[in-house]
Amino acid sequence: MKLLMLGSGTSTGVPRIGNDWGECDPAEPRNRRTRVSIMVENDAGQRILIDTSTDLRQQLLANEIEKVDAVLWTHDHADHCHGIDDLRVMRYGRSNALPGYAEPKTAKSLRKRFDYVFEGQHGYPTLIELSDLRDQRLVAGFSLDWVEMPHGPTHSTGFRLEADGVSLVYATDYSEITPQMQSCFAGADLLVSDCLRRQPHPTHASLGLALELASRTKAKRTVLTHLDKSMDYRALADEVPKRVIVGYDGLELAV
């Protein structure tokens, strides 16, 4: 299995509009962060995209990705879904709509905000066939498990994907660790974790909480993502323990 980190930044990206780099060194390319999305590929070449970030077109072009086999959504916040229209090109040449999956509340919100994507409109075909995540245990050649995670006053979905004898967990936008999360994520070969900043935050994981999740789940390796402008790549890389990797746009890892 292979991880491709399409975007690694928080909702405003790094730098923020106004050329605000915060504590991040502008001379370090890995500090330039688009909004979070990942792609996971198995040995058979099947690909799952998780989230359609605001910067999806830019990410797909930068990584020369022209097709995926399924899409999963963690939740309906803008930075995780507002790039959905960029999937239109992936519908070209297909005989059917692209498979997509989300838990019911997220699916309801996506259908309301992007009705033309899921229903077709004015002669244009349906782009995505959106299905209930609760009914799925196998998606595009991957075994799938999932869990709802606290995200401040709302929730985000954490995913566990297994293929080729290894497991990958994607846990972004969570603010506490539940027993259900710990059980679902236990023993993952690779954990990709939310890590907004060092200080605690009401809706996101801090560095301490991300490292706690890695420890409690006994993840073999951990990648940090959803990083804000206070998280300079080199400073953070020097700070974190072994087996913890600071994520960046374009990072590729064999799981």
From TrEMBL:
What Gene3D superfamilies does its record include?
Ribonuclease Z/Hydroxyacylglutathione hydrolase-like (3.60.15.10)
Please give the InterPro entries that the UniProt record associates with this protein: Metallo-B-lactamas, RibonucZ/Hydroxyglut_hydro
The Metallo-beta-lactamase domain covers: 34-226
Q: Which residues cross the membrane?
A: none
Checking Pfam families in the record gives: Lactamase_B_2
* UniProt name for this protein: MBL fold metallo-hydrolase
Origin species, per record, is Qipengyuania benthica
